[in-house]
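Run log // design_07
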């Protein structure tokens, strides 16, 4: 009765027989054979197959929805029986990078693991925008504006950006009064070479250039404090240095306010209880 159902759901989730086979660590022919036998038993075609792609039939789509609901109920029942509702356990893989993740997110995840010691956490600090599904991550912490509709993005904290330079740098260079004047300055670049600004409620990008580039904010901060140029950094990183007079903020009236740190995770109907619990924990901590 249950034969082929797992294979069918994996094909639905991953969009191909090949990817389903990789996820289940079996051969593609095994997946294809199991799905074919399932269709024969049901007397219905679940997938439309072409040489390039597969897609669910209307019957297959309705069947998948019902099966996912049944499987989730089965997982919840097993969790409750095994005590995982009280003691979640297993591995959670997290992708993130930067000062905010290291100093603000990681300590909250540590609290979670101390509360649930049977949970294992693998945190990968990498500025690369990883493919969560393809690379097997449960969730990620990302900064900026979320545009990927294939992922669920929940805001953790607003991150207001500001331009900063040292008094030493400004003593030897003119102070910019508009974003366009940044073309005349040495700009210390984190990721892209375009910075966003608010011109009378219209967001525009300004191209910048400079002789120092780093994907780590502390490296940019060090170069800025040394008088190398102008940097575009989050206020929580530079505030103490501004208050001490080591840095000066620039063009405050042009700064955008739509950046944030986000908790991002795939759209999964069957999410492990431990991952759901960590998501709820982080959202509650940052809302507080």
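design_07 sequence
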């Amino acid at each position: 009765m249950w034969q082929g159902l797992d294979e069918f759901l994996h094909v639905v989730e991953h969009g191909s027989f090949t990817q389903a086979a990789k996820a289940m660590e079996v051969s593609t022919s095994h997946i294809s054979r199991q799905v074919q036998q399932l269709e024969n038993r049901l007397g219905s075609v679940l997938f439309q197959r072409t040489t390039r792609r597969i897609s669910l039939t209307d019957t297959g789509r309705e069947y998948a929805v019902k099966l996912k609901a049944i499987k989730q109920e089965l997982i919840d029942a097993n969790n409750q029986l095994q005590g995982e509702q009280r003691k979640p356990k297993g591995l959670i893989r997290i992708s993130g990078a930067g000062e905010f993740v290291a100093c603000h997110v990681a300590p909250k995840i540590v609290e979670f693991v101390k509360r649930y010691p049977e949970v294992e956490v693998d945190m990968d600090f990498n500025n690369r925008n990883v493919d969560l599904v393809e690379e097997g991550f449960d969730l990620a912490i990302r900064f900026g504006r979320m545009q990927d509709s294939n992922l669920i993005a929940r805001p953790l904290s607003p991150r207001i950006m500001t331009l900063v330079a040292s008094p030493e740098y400004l003593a030897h260079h003119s102070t910019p009064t508009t974003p366009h004047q940044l073309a005349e300055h040495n700009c210390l670049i984190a990721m892209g070479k375009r910075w966003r600004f608010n011109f009378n409620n219209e967001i525009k990008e300004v191209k910048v250039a400079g002789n120092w580039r780093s994907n780590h904010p502390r490296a940019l901060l060090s170069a800025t404090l040394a008088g190398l140029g102008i940097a575009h950094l989050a206020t929580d990183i530079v505030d103490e240095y501004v208050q001490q007079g080591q840095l000066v903020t620039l063009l405050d009236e042009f700064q955008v306010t739509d950046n944030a740190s986000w908790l991002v995770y795939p759209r999964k109907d069957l999410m492990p209880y431990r991952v759901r619990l960590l998501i709820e924990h982080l959202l509650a901590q940052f809302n507080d």
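The chain has three domains: 5-82, 90-156+260-287, 161-254.
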